[in-house]
């Protein structure tokens, strides 16, 4: 598998944690072993080795928004809704939202969502870079699969090296990031193969 598409069923990507279960909690403070048992509520903080595309329909709010931020790219329907709705009920972001959201849309816009808990529609999300593109209603998963196939069609080692280098640069100095980027030369064999194919294809076209 070279890429994957993450989507929700029933017209909603993910609306976050089940607040009904939270309402039944008997204690108003967490136990000492809570964070050992439930460090994160879901897979949101996983570091995936391959590109992930989130196909978003309906709501991607609270923990669902955090889940979408795990993806490298996000495609939404025109009617999709985003937001830190957990702000409205006093539930904090604990699945990477305060870390990834500012990286994706910038600090000011992230704080707008985090502090207000307001709804962000697909148009604004696209303008902010929260989603990469908007697909027609009912076509979101199809568009995500097509995008995944496009990514998978490229030489994989080089693509993954550049992807890893991009994420690496977020947490390291410019000098360290330049040095790490240069390590991509390890995929030179794939580069030579790709260059040969390009030259051969160019020669074939010139003969037509």
UniProtKB/TrEMBL annotation:
Any one GO MF term held by the record is: catalytic activity
Q: Which domain of life, per UniProt?
A: Eukaryota
InterPro entries, alphabetized:
ClpP/crotonase-like_dom_sf, Enoyl-CoA_hyd/isom_CS, Enoyl-CoA_hydra/iso
- Extract the CDD domains matched here: crotonase-like
Q: Which Gene3D superfamilies match?
A: 1.10.287.2460, 2-enoyl-CoA Hydratase, Chain A, domain 1 (3.90.226.10)
Q: Give the Pfam families listed for this entry.
A: ECH_1
Q: Extract the PANTHER family matched here.
A: ENOYL-COA HYDRATASE, IP11341P-RELATED
Task: State the similarity comment.
Answer: Belongs to the enoyl-CoA hydratase/isomerase family.
Q: Report what the protein is called.
A: Enoyl-CoA hydratase
Q: Which organism is it from?
A: Caenorhabditis tropicalis
